Predict the 3D structure of the following.
Amino acid sequence: MYAYKELLKNIEEKLNSFGKPEFSEPPEGMGDISTNIAFTIAKKEGKNPAEVARGIIERIEKPVMIEKVEASGPYVNFFIDYEKFSEKVLSEAVREDYGSSNYGGGKTIVIDYSHPNIAKPMHVGHMRSTVIGNSLYRMFKFLGFGVIGVNHLGDFGLQFGKLLYAFKEWGSEEELEKNPIDYLVGLYVRFHEVEEQNPELKEKAEEWQKRLENRDPEAKALWEKFRELSIQKFEKVYKRMGVVFDSYKGEAYYVFNGLTKEVIKQALEKKVAVKEDEETVVVPLEEYGLPNARLLENGRSLYITRDLAAAIDRKKEYDFYKNIYVVSNAQSLHFQQLFKILELLGYEWFKDCEHVKFGLFSLPEGRISTRKGRFVKLEEVLDAAVEKAQRVIEEKNPGLEKKEEVAEKVGIGAVKFADLSQNRIKDVVFDLDRMVSFEGDTGPYLQYAHVRCKSILRKAGEQKTEVDYSLIREKEEKQLVMKIAEFPEVVFKAATSYEPHQLAQYLLELAHLFSVFYEKHKVMGNALRVQIVRAVANVLKNGLYLLGIEALDEM
Ligand code: ARG
């Protein structure tokens, strides 16, 4: 058990006979941990809280790692024995895996994230899902869960009928291979242009769509090619972003394997759905305050049908403990319908499904050229951030080696941090200039704090002098040790509430305390302080990793 938890547990044990304490931070000079347990007891027994507090002080045994216990009005305040505490905290915190645990005990969490649509560029709308999902992925692994990252690709729907038709009509293999996604977008646009004059094209598209659904070899082979080429392109972006997936089962999988048919059949049998006509199946949801959901329309499955099939399939395949969807809050209604239908179908585990939603992403007007396309490509945002990072580095540290590599990591880290440092429900405006700054609440600021730690440690050398923990006395040292001690709890809370921003905010606080400490106190030649710096560096490294950001040694 990590030091901080152990400390609280020690205190709790000693207070056992009085009740279950809640902890808070006392005002300066009044110790390190405070509880108002006396207040609760006094209220229950009609006594004076200050008296009760004094009574507790008289009777309580001193917990381990606590130096003294004092009553202050109704509060019972604990003063940490920083010699013992810092020794324990710092020796834990310099270990590579500091903050990790086996809390998950191998239970499986499925995370559905990123999920772009094939034959289209990944646009900024997919960025937040990719960044948040990846951070949750890393955090849950760190906590001992088996994590399955699923990229539920949008690879099915009438648009593929259109594409198949357009490609057969006007396409060229050679052009396709050259620049697949842009080429397919072009064909798609052309289809719509031609369709305006020739409305019968819609039927052609439907025909091709039917052929695809029926696994006609020609349609299927072509579609597979579009899909494969799209994934190759996506993977380049994922590689830059340090993102991985364990499954690329997209929407089409559930149609081709008959699982959508299966779920429709089930819904009808269980009388959850009704047939409106031969080609239309609906789940009435009005009584739950939700819009009705169509599972079949014109004989074709819908987005929600494929999600139902996918959820059932995931439960079978992974027997998940949690099944989470990192998707914009624009789809809230969809997920409410989805979970409701799973419940109506009798799947108890619908309770383990969760929509982890987030707000919109936008750019301040005019900062990035959206060219003529309707969407800003995710890659364009990354490139713009990297370019700006390059400029900042050029200005700050022109002599730096491997400037390009560093700029790539700083730029991408900046984008990720800007996203993760805010409450995910809120809309975010990406101000690239601010994001890449080395000062302020930014990713580069944290990377830079890590770089500073590393440079101090290099200068200190592999100083193996014994650390004398009894030397700890400065306020800034103690504050840092306390902050460092909190890291495992912060990771735990950030993950289990699906709130990476809790971790992001924590890291900013840590970096800030570090900078105050470093300004005030001489580190060189003081083994204890060097040890503190070593721990700060390690927490920054692990914390940044969990946000999907690379810690650098130089920048
Ligand atoms: N492909 C969809 C989109 O781009 C998101 C899919 C979300 N995941 C899911 N299982 N429905 O909007």
